[in-house]
Protein: Thioesterase-like protein
Organism: Phaeobacter inhibens
Amino acid sequence: MTDSQTPDFIHEIRVGWGDCDPARIAYTGHLPGFALQAIDAWWEHQLDGDGWYQMELDRGTGTPFVHMSIDFRSPVTPRHRLACSVWPVALGQKSVTFRVEARQDGTLCFEGKFVCVFIEPSDFSAKPAPADYRAVIEPLLRADLA
């Protein structure tokens, strides 16, 4: 990624001993969770502190995931903070796609795409992306580099 393509938002995660398996690396099952934590933090940053909890309960819009794909590049360990870069790469009528790239000490550990759909929480039906969400997402859209 070049400097002009560097995402505006990076969420750091402290990987702990308890996140690891007997091989002394982060358990594979935790890595999607780390990415989702970073996306939730992205929303909180963009929506003045409102993450998924407030989005659904206070703002009336849920965003469940309908697709996740992750490519693993290097093991994640407790040695360094996991710096997760997050940015939106696509905004459809009823969905948004995020890219997450996670690095430790400058080394790319995993990268992936995460697609969520905007829903009405009361009946779980898809709905158009709310205008205030579009206003936040559209200026931050970046090409998917993969």
User: Anything to note?
Assistant: The two ends are 10 Å apart (CA to CA).
